[in-house]
Structures are given as structure tokens and as C-alpha cells.
Fold these 2 entries.
Entry 1:
Amino acid sequence: MVKFTVLEDEYIIKNYAEMSCSKLAKTLGRDFKQTENHIRGLKNKNLLCGKSSYVPAIDGTKLEIQGIQNKNTMTSIRKRIKLNKFIKLQINNVVENCEIIFKTYNYFTIRHKNYVESFNYTDVLMGVVTFG
């Protein structure tokens, strides 16, 4: 088995959010299982965090890729959050059914019983707040 190159890693990191594992494998000329295992390894090293998650910077050369992925993720998060809809929100390992009562470009506000709190979309991106 031939090790993945740095260029192949960069390609996977850049395209992982938009491409399936099978398509990545085919494009790189690699076996599906080998590619799938390598992606799992990149996730374990915190180089990939899922299809719509924050991707931490590896070094200065990766910042542009990270920025593009984070922008796409933020757009996806904004689309999922709709006014007057209920979402299960997980805060500090407690899942609550909360109503979205206010939304702007940068943050959203939820209400649960008499409790009201606002969150930045980046809180979701960074994993501070997750959808249950």
C-alpha cells in the first residue's frame, strides 16, 4: 500500500465537504477502502471533522482551504435555523427542545420555557452548541 502524499491530503481536505469518499478515491486513483481509512485517520488527527464541521488550521498554507470550508459550513448552519421552528439544542450535555425566536446574519436567539439565550453561528461551527 502506497502512502498518501501531502498533495493528496490537501486535495481531500479541500474537497471532502463536497465530494463522496468514492468520488475522492476515484479522482485520486485510490482504492475506496484505502481512501475511507485514510479519511478516518485525518479525522482522528483533527484535520477533518465531518461534512459540515469546523476544520482547524494545520498551518498557514491551509488557512485558505479552512476559510472556504468554514464559509460553506456557516451558510449551511444559517439555512438550517429558521424562525418559529423548534430544534433540539444540546448545551453542556443537556438536550432541550427550544424555539428559535430571533435570527440575524450573525446570531440566533432561542427560548426554552422562561429561558432565553442568543448564540453566534460560530458557536455551532466550533461545537460549543450542537443540534440534538
Entry 2:
Amino acid sequence: MSKVNRFEVFDGIISWLLGIFLVISAIPHLGNPYFFLGSVYAYQMIWPIIGQFVVMVLPILQLILAVCLIGRFFIDAVNFLALGCFLVFATVQTSAAVRGLDISCGCFGPDHETMVGWFSLSLVYGLLMLSLIRNTICLFSQPSVPCRKIERQS
């Protein structure tokens, strides 16, 4: 297997993992926005009006990012936005853990009451690291690497 093929497989696996977790998180939030709103408010970090905006926008953004990650559309923008999302998720959960809030992370809807703690922090930081690795590789890759698709002139 050549280096490019190995990279394509590695990049594809990371893209699919990040996309699947975004879908798994977005679907329950779309299905039960009131639970999601309660989860957002439980973090005690933003004003109520901003919380309502987050509940309206975040699940849609997660689905769009997931589709683009899995389908390999708008690669540079999606890499940057996904990294930003996972960075925000990590920051918010770390803040809740440091402040000692005994709350559900709200990651996967009301059926999965995962509390903010070692498991949820490990998951979000793992996803953040995968996104950071993918961003770094794509940012510093040569044009021949599939992150940067260049049209060939005939």
C-alpha cells in the first residue's frame, strides 16, 4: 500500500469517526430540543437567549459538518469548523468539571445520561485530538495528499 493510500484510509477513518459522533449527537437534540435546552442551561455559562440560539443552530451545524466530513465536501472549512466545535465542547465540559457541576453532559440526548466526568471528558478530548490531527495533516500536507484536491489541467 503506498503512502497516499495509507493516508486516504487513515483520513477516511478519522472523517467517518468524527462524522458519526456528530450525527449521534445531533439526532437526539433535534428530536428533543427541550431536553437539549435544559442541558445547555445546566452548564450555567451563557444567557438564556444565547442558549436558545445554540439549541436551534448547533444540531443543524453538527449534521452539516457530519455530511461534509463523511462526503469529503469543503474540506478546509469543515476541518476548521469541526475543530472549533470540538474545542468548544471540550472547554464547556472542562469548565463544568472544574466547577464541580453534577450534570449530564447532554451529548447524546435523554436516553444516555452520561454525567460530565472522566468518560465524557475522555470522549470529547479524544474527538478533539482526532480533529486536531486531521487539521494538522491537511494544513501541512503536500498538494498531492487528498486533503487538498487540485484540479489537473489537461
